[in-house]
Amino acid sequence: MSTGPIFDRVALIGFGLIGGSIARAARLQGLAGEIITTARSAKTRERVMELGIVDRVVETNVEAVQDADLVILCIPVGACGPVAAEITGHLKPGAIISDVGSVKASVVKDMAPHLPAGVHFVPAHPVAGTENSGPDSGFAELFINRWCILTPPEGTEAKATEKLRAFWTALGAKVEVMTPEHHDLVLAITSHLPHLIAYTIVGTADELAQVTSSEVIKFSAGGFRDFTRIAASDPTMWRDIFLANKDAVLEMLGTFNEDLSKLTRAIRRGDGEALLEHFTRTRAIRRGIVEIGQDSAAPDFGRPHQQLTKK
Ligand code: NAP
């Protein structure tokens, strides 16, 4: 359902999975009078022009932000500080400047010092994604029923936060506001640690001497393949996330290692009761996620199964 334009001009810096999904959804819902975008490479900019989703594709970040009422940085978190420094003198007074980075405290620390008085800084993180990247990977439905976390620094005008909330709500998201530090702790356990584990296990399997790589791939339906989806996520983005959220990730990793030691001990001692108790608890968490609509109830993540036909 369209709500009509919320901003006259929206500038998206970066047009990959997230920027491209915002553009598609905002256009579909008519949330912006005009959508301007840019990307780092000429190749991406050309592709965005071919896609015909936005009103204008410009060459530079500075051109993109001219007269924009909402500017969203849709780029790796490590690039947010330098881009903020580049556009600072060109932002429209009263504009809202935001981002979509998966880490918040470091983005606030890197961007805030560059932003002039009179613009409203409201960082955001849509907790939605896929393992794909690039201008073709986005889709308008990505944010539907997913959470978008806003982390306005202290002193941010409530009106600006509410306007950005309205924008994300119209994109289909549910919005929550928290501090950047709390966001980083929550995401360290719900997103960053799972990615680290997936990157580790897929790497470990690849290096095993006793089991060949072709066997790992062939028998991956035993569970391994579900890790490979996460481990296929964009390498640059994830390098930046671990560098930027180091403290929270290390804290969660410490707790994880303790719990892994407990399970290791239970296996070594043949303590079936401890294993059963643990696995029963984790199964209930999965059910809770399905119950609140954050994943499908279909078995095997809803993968289609071929029909067995009688020979
Ligand atoms: P993506 O598909 O790889 O797109 C990234 C975009 O940023 C591209 O347009 C790229 O331009 C541009 N870019 C890359 N490096 C840059 C730099 N140094 N300076 C300026 N622009 C640069 O990435 P994405 O998945 O949309 O992720 C973008 C942001 O969203 C990241 O901060 C990530 O943490 C956050 N996020 C991602 C997900 C997810 O699941 N992917 C979910 C939530 C939030 P070129 O194409 O020209 O290189």
Would you summarize the structure shown here?
The protein is α/β, with parallel strands linked by helices.
Overview of the structural elements:
By secondary structure, the protein is of the alpha/beta class. The chain folds into 2 domains: 7-178, NAD(P)-binding Rossmann-like Domain (Rossmann fold, 3-Layer(aba) Sandwich), CATH 3.40.50.720; 182-295, 6-phosphogluconate dehydrogenase C-terminal like domain (6-phosphogluconate dehydrogenase C-terminal fold, Orthogonal Bundle), CATH 1.10.3660. The chain has 12 helices and 9 strands. The protein has a 6-stranded parallel β-sheet with strand order 3-2-1-4-5-6. Strands 7-8-9 form a 3-stranded mixed β-sheet, with helices on one face. Helix 1 (17-29) links the parallel strand 1 and strand 2. Helix 4 runs parallel beside helix 5 (105-111), helix 7 (180-207) packs across helix 9 and helix 7 (180-207) packs across helix 11 (246-269). The longest helix has 28 residues, at 180-207. It is globular, with a radius of gyration of 22 Å. The termini are far apart. The structure holds NADP nicotinamide-adenine-dinucleotide phosphate. The site of NADP nicotinamide-adenine-dinucleotide phosphate (NAP) has 27 residues, from helix 1 and strand 7. NADP nicotinamide-adenine-dinucleotide phosphate (NAP) is lined by residues 14-19, 39-41, 44, 74-77, 79, 83, 100-102, 125-126, 129, 133-134, 137, 234, 237.
